[in-house]
Amino acid sequence: MRAAHAGAPACCRGDTVTLADRGDATVVRHGGVVAKAHAADTGDGLAVRLGVAARLSGVLLPPLGPDPVRLRGRPVTFWPYGSPVDPDDPDSAPWEAAATLLARLHRVSARGLPVMRGPAKAARAVGRLAGVPHPAVAPVLRAWGRLPAWARAEAPMPDTGTLCHGDLHLGQLVRHEGEWLLIDVDDLGGGVAAWDLARPAAWYACGLLSGEEWGRFLAAYRLAGGPAVPADGDPWDALDVPARALTVQTAARAVAKAVAEDRPLDEAEVCTVDACARISDLPPEPDRGNPT
């Protein structure tokens, strides 16, 4: 953080705390300011995405500056600190807020913006399984092969006109100045809106999210006019392919992490691999346009 001060907003007092330190991002907090060092290969679209966050007040947390700062070969962005969702209090999870924010995001045109990077992120997760010696790899890769090319980032998405978050989960929400907002614009762009609903849909299908929580999320999205699914009736025609893709991505990450840590899969991880085994028994999905 000290090295970034040359390009940072006015310094505030407080200890520096590391919030995340992964291969693709390092996030630290210094008082009321959060600095995020993005992956070195982050493209030019980051500045465009920052501009979108600055414009969408009340939906996305606005950045503290209009442009990334280069630091040791990596782009760094600055944000106001917001309180995250409490992982130890699942009953307080803001499912309705997340769904409402998504619906508002999905009503924004993505004209002139980069494509949403959700499928590319899933492909990277699956790619990390190459050469990994684990019996769960086979069903995960078979399930991946059942997906249409667009969901594997091997063909253009059938829709790129809708603004999507690209990596929605509860860790992407913070409370700032009394309201919940979406964070992390790295994957933001035009794409299939159902992708943003796919992770909770996949958790529900795998038995990791209760029907009550999934129902709250889906009802709130529909009430807010979200376009990813029909306003009533069965939503799964729209959700099926993205939910399968997020199931495979989650399982791939779980297997790679378990192997790296030299441990067995935990109960939740086994659920995602079992879901991949079921997906792999289904016929391949045809490449067709977005049903919504």
How does this model look, in words?
The protein is an alpha+beta fold and 292 residues long. The chain is built from eight helices and ten strands. The protein has helices at residues 45-55, 95-106, 118-127, 137-145, 198-206, 211-223, 236-260, 267-280; strands at 16-22, 25-30, 33-38, 69-71, 74-80, 83-84, 162-164, 173-176, 179-182, 189-191. The chain is globular, with a radius of gyration of 19 Å. It starts with 15 loop residues before the first strand and ends in a 12-residue tail after the last helix. The mean pLDDT is 91.
Helix content: 25-40%
Give the neighbour order of strands across the main sheet: 1-2-3-5-4
How far apart the termini lie comes to 44 Å
Oligomer: single chain
Radius of gyration: 19 Å
SSE topology string: EEEHEEEHHHEEEEHHHH
Average pLDDT value?
91
* Number of E strands: 10
Strand content: 15-25%
- The poorly predicted ranges are none
Output the number of helix runs. Answer: 8
Shape: globular
Largest sheet descriptor: 5 strands, antiparallel
Strand pairing plus helix content: what structural class? alpha+beta
